[in-house]
Amino acid sequence: MAEEGLVTECQTVELWSDIFTKASESKKLTVVDFTATWCPPCRFIAPILADLAKKMTHVIFLKVDVDNLTSVSEKYDVEAMPTFLFFKEGKIVDRVVGAKKDELVAKIEQHATQVASA
Question: Which PROSITE patterns match (predicted)?
């Protein structure tokens, strides 16, 4: 399972499937960062995401390298990096494309609040 307060990197399809299934069953908001090692905006936003994970322990944060897990990124139509997908119970509820810190924080707060009040 994803560790509370950390961004969990999914390095294999099997690990992704296992962690994503458990995250979906938890009913918590799950934020997935689709990233690439060669992507400067991805490197810019990574420490910000790590900081958010520490502060927002009621949210699950996952990271998928699009070059390592192409089948996962293709499944969710990820075409630009970074792309952040927001899931509730395994279903996409929102997305942010680009290293847009303020938009990312606002969407996390919006959807995490909806989960907490549901």
Answer: THIOREDOXIN_1, THIOREDOXIN_2
Q: Which one of the listed residues 7, 23, 39, 108 is annotated catalytic?
A: 39
Active site residue 42: yes
- CA dist 11 and 55 (Å) reads 24
**12-68 pLDDT tens trace:** 999 999 999 999 999 899 999 999 999 999 999 999 999 999 999 999 999 999 999
- Domains along the sequence of the chain with CATH: 7-117 (3.40.30.10)
Residue 70 CA to residue 5 CA, distance in Å, equals 26
- Secondary structure (3-state) at 101: helix
For the beta sheet containing 60-65, the strands, ordered from the edge strand earlier in sequence to the opposite edge, are 7-10, 60-65, 30-35, 83-88, 91-97
